[in-house]
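Write out this protein's structure.
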Amino acid sequence: MAGTKLSVTMIKSKFGRLPRHKACLVGMGLRKINQTVVLLNTPENRGMINKVSYMLKVEEL
């Protein structure tokens, strides 16, 4: 499971969000709406994804 990759797309704006949630987006490398990044499926990345899951679309690659 740790070797798989995740495709993460930001689908909602970061404006007006909590500072911790904005920090999670920065940590994942997301800056714009509809931007997609590919991340490793690690516990650290999963934690950030779970924190801001309402703003993301996640697909397993």
